[in-house]
């Protein structure tokens, strides 16, 4: 009966910690500091809380989560900057095309103006 209650209580405990607790109990039994019947005084979970001084794992995992969040945010910002660069390039191409088209229009207007001035000069010279 004692064995089944101990087994049911230790199902959620990692295997390496179980072994550490069992080794500690065996060492106490060898030193005759703990009689054989007193092993059931404390459940395994309470013994493991004393043994677990591994609070660094929580800070490491928190650090990794923070690092992943920072990486995701930086990736998002870099993607946004690349998108803006592409959009700016497209706008610059549009402006260049418009300027080229307007430059051609201005040249055409200059030609038309020179033709009109020549024609007016011819009409003026005919009237004199």
From TrEMBL:
Keywords: Membrane, Transmembrane, Transmembrane helix. The keyword Transmembrane helix applies. The keyword Transmembrane helix applies. InterPro entries: DUF4577. Pfam families: DUF4577. The chain crosses the membrane at residues 62-86. This is Leucine-rich single-pass membrane protein 1.
